[in-house]
Amino acid sequence: MAISSFGRFETYAARLAAVSLSAAVALPLGGVAAHAGAVGAVPTASAPELPAPAFRLFSSELRIGDSGPEVKRLQQRLMDLGYWLDTADGEFGGLTLHAVWALQKAAGIDRDGIVGPITRKALDNGVRPSAQTSSGQVVEIDLERQLLLVVSNGTVEKVFNTSTGSGKKYESRGEQHVAVTPKGRYSVFRDVDAWDPGPLGSLYRPKYFNGGIAIHGYTSVPPYPASHGCARVSIKAMDWLWESGRLDIYSTVLVR
Predict the structure, then answer these.
(1) 98 tagged catalytic
(2) Is 35 a catalytic residue?
(3) Domains, the chain, ranges and CATH?
(4) pTM
(5) How many CB atoms lie within 10 A of CB 218?
């Protein structure tokens, strides 16, 4: 008789005359098993081993607006893999969408924000991006995958959805520019602990690392390049970056 379908043990009793024998089969996380001998049956051979079920977190498609235990398990799995979320509250809101986008970017799959079979497989496989640096405390901006990574001695600790320079032309103060985020190794040299107004709009709690280019919070952070050159993250993600101390003055920022 199966006692639990998640993280417990299945036991069965099938015995001869006065002999009592029990076996426990460990279930992997997310696995579901049901196995029991027929009541009153007397086996003539030892019970077969249960096949190890594949790791699966979810049984249905999940998307923004959903809620409940399956969403909470999704959130916890994302957090366990390093994709930043403030909490696992069972509500599929904007921050969960950003974390799903980040996972999809790391996996190289469609950035639709929907947790369907392909995205579930990426979760099952434990997809995580890798760092380019191997030492020190660094914030890496991956332009190709549009990810912002918080890295410690080569280990990726947190992964954020980001949106960098769109590559489009724009005009500012009567001059033509191209919206790019230049590659290179920089240091944070100035920050503003507030909304910082500028000619192209206000930036939330910006950390400037290259002229007027900053990592900053913004109300719109799509899963593709859309900024004038800065690296956008969500408002709450920017709050975390400030509070974590990982983007203090002189912190290293690698754009790659």
Answers:
(1) no
(2) no
(3) 1-54 (no CATH), 69-124 (1.10.101.10), 137-255 (2.40.440.10)
(4) 0.78
(5) 22
